[in-house]
Amino acid sequence: MRVTISPLEAGSEELRITALWRYEAFLKDDGFSIADSEAQLGQLATAPEGCETALIARADGQVAGICLLVLHELEPLHNVSPWLASLYVTPEFRGLGLARDLIRTIEEHARRNGMRKLHLYTVDAEDLYLKCGWRVAERFVSHGVAQALMIRDL
Question: Got the DSSP string for 22-41?
Answer without folding.
Answer: HIIIIIGGGT--HHHHHHHH
